[in-house]
TrEMBL record:
Name of this chain's protein: ROK family protein
Organism: Mesorhizobium album
Similarity comment text for this entry: Belongs to the ROK (NagC/XylR) family.
Region (Disordered): 326-345
Transmembrane domains' residue ranges: none
Length: 345
């Protein structure tokens, strides 16, 4: 068996573990509901139990290290989980120290959005790009930036908190306390809230029928829009405009080779893409308008394979292949422009 990394993706609801190859292939996967209210010690116990299970089931595996990702804020260099809002009792937990002592292996830690960005860049929709911005749109909005072949960290690894850039002066208050955050107006939660306000229980609308007369979610809006529902289509149009405004800011700030959109709302990417593209073309300066905006390819394993690559690809910014593809794109032979569908395989 080839060289492997143990990978963990510590989420507020699910804890995932995997054995990952250098190619990004997942050899084995395990998961458990995170004991998010039980404190750091209990959850670290869960991580150790999942690791033991993977190692026992694959005794021949040559594991050379552990790559882990967790919600921010965290300090990747110091290896400290600072205090994610979704995990009770985690305050400045030295996760790298704890896991390396337990297993006697090198451990690397990254914020989950950054790890997913790395995953999509090395193995997914961003393969071959020199720079990319990964945006995850679901309950909130998170992101990671790969700039010139490296994750852009900033002070204490806290860069690219793109959900909290201000993009308007109005709307609902964000959980961070501000008004007008990208996340507060463009997340899946915000879309669901707009749909809920637009309709009423028992009004017979498709949105309320899909939600069983409960609160309407972003998933219901996408489903209704696919069925041709006019109200849902308008909601999608407005959502695409907000995303397009946020993405325009990201283009101007980071000048990526592409933007990769993941998260739950990327299930409706094909519906949103024309509106996103139209907004970018309207608002971005000329030089930024043709940057591809594409859906993520790796789904919920992006964080795992990205975290694994911290170990398996350590010290390697990109690959020869990546540089080659970059040349191709630059010469116009890559054919990457505008919004394209995910290309698998
Ligand atoms: Zn905010």
């Amino acid at each position: 068996m080839s060289t492997l990394a143990l990978a963990f993706d510590l989420g507020g609801t699910e804890l995932r573990g995997a054995l990952v190859e250098r190619s990004g292939d997942v050899v084995a996967r395990v998961s458990a509901p995170t004991m998010a209210g039980a404190g750091a010690e209990a959850v670290i116990g869960q991580i150790i139990a999942l690791a033991d299970r993977l190692l026992n089931e694959h005794p021949q595996a040559r594991v050379i290290g552990i790559g882990a990702c967790a919600p921010g804020p965290l300090d990747p260099k110091a290896g400290i989980v600072i205090g994610p809002p979704t995990l009770a009792g985690w305050h400045n937990v030295p996760l790298i120290d704890i896991l390396s002592r337990q297993f006697g292996l090198p451990v690397r830690l990254e914020n989950d959005a950054n790890a997913a960005a790395l995953g999509e860049w090395r193995f997914g929709a961003g393969r071959g790009a020199g720079s990319l911005v990964f945006v995850t749109v679901s309950t909130g909005i998170g992101g990671g930036v790969v700039a010139d072949g490296h994750i852009y960290h900033g002070r204490r690894g806290l860069a690219a908190e793109i959900g909290h850039m201000t993009i308007t002066g109005e709307g609902d208050r964000c959980f961070c306390g501000n008004v007008g955050c990208f996340e507060a107006v463009a997340s899946g939660t915000a879309l669901g809230r707009r749909a809920t306000r637009l309709t009423a229980p028992g009004d017979g609308s498709l949105l309320r029928r899909l939600s069983g007369d409960g609160d309407v979610s972003a998933r219901h809006v996408v489903e209704a829009a696919r069925a041709g529902d006019a109200a849902a289509r308008e909601l999608i149009e407005a959502e695409a405009r907000w995303l397009g405004i946020g993405f325009t800011n990201l283009l101007h700030l980071y000048s990526p080779d592409l933007i990769v959109m993941g998260g739950g709302l990327s299930n409706g990417f094909d519906l949103l893409a024309p509106g996103i593209r139209a907004t970018v073309e309207q608002r971005a300066m000329q030089a930024y308008r043709d940057v591809p905006i594409v859906p993520a390819e790796l789904g919920d394993r992006a964080g795992l394979v990205g975290a694994a690559s911290l170990i398996l690809w350590e010290g390697e910014p990109g690959t020869a292949l990546a540089m080659g593809q970059d040349e191709e794109t630059k010469n116009g032979a890559g054919g990457q422009s505008g919004v394209r569908e995910a290309s698998h395989g």
